[in-house]
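#lab-general

N.A. 3:47 PM
ok so I finally got the sequence cleaned up, no stray characters, all 225 residues accounted for. can someone with queue access submit it? mine expired

B.Y. 3:52 PM
send it over

N.A. 3:53 PM
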Amino acid sequence: MSKRIGVLLSGRGSNFEALADSVRAGRIPDAEISIVISNREDAHGLLRAAERGIAARAIPSKGLEREAYDRLVVAALNEARVDLVCLAGFMRLLSPYFVAAFPGRILNIHPSLLPSFPGLEAQRQALDYGVKFSGCTVHLVDENLDAGPIVAQAIVPVKPGDTEETLAARILSEEHRIYTEAVRLVLSGKFRIEGRRVLPTTEPTTKPATKEDQEERLAGRAKRG
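B.Y. 4:20 PM
back already:
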C-alpha cells in the first residue's frame, strides 16, 4: 500500500513539485502525494498541484489563532489519511497541537546549514555574516523554530559576488535533491534518532503512528491543558 504524503505550502511550491516529480519517477517508491494545503488562497503551488491532478485546498489562516488554525489543517490531513507531512515553504510555525498530531512524521526543508541562520531570509543572513559555505537542511519538526533532529544536509559554497538571489538559486537545487532523499528515508522507517541526529539503519526501527495513537496523544494534551 502506498504511503500518503501531505504537503503544506504558502507560495510557489518549488519543493512540492520536486517531490511530486520524485514520486512519479519512483525515486520515492510506494508513495503518493494525497493532498496539498496552503494558508494562502493565491499560492501558486495550489495551481501546480491541481494541474497534476492532486487534491489542492486553501485553508486561509488570516484572523485565526495559531492552534485554532492548526486544528483545521490537522483535520484535513487526517481526512486525507496522510502518513507524512512535508512542509514546502509553509510560512507558519506549527503549534504543539499540530506536532503532537503527527509525532516524528513532519519534515521541513530550510535554506541554511542549521543550526546556523534559522528563520526568515536565511540566505541574506548568511551573506551578511560573511560565511564561505551555506547550504540546506531537512529536519524533523518539533515545537521550536527550525530546531528538530537533522535528517539530511547539503553544503553550497558562497561565491564572491553572490547575491541573495544567486545563492538562493544554487541552494534550491540542493534542496530538491536532499528533500527526496529525506522523505524516502523517513517513509522507509529505516532510521533511528540519536540526540539531534537522524541516522539510517539497515532494518526498520520506526513505524508511523496509528490514528488511535494520534487521538490518544491529543486527548492527553487536552487533559493537561
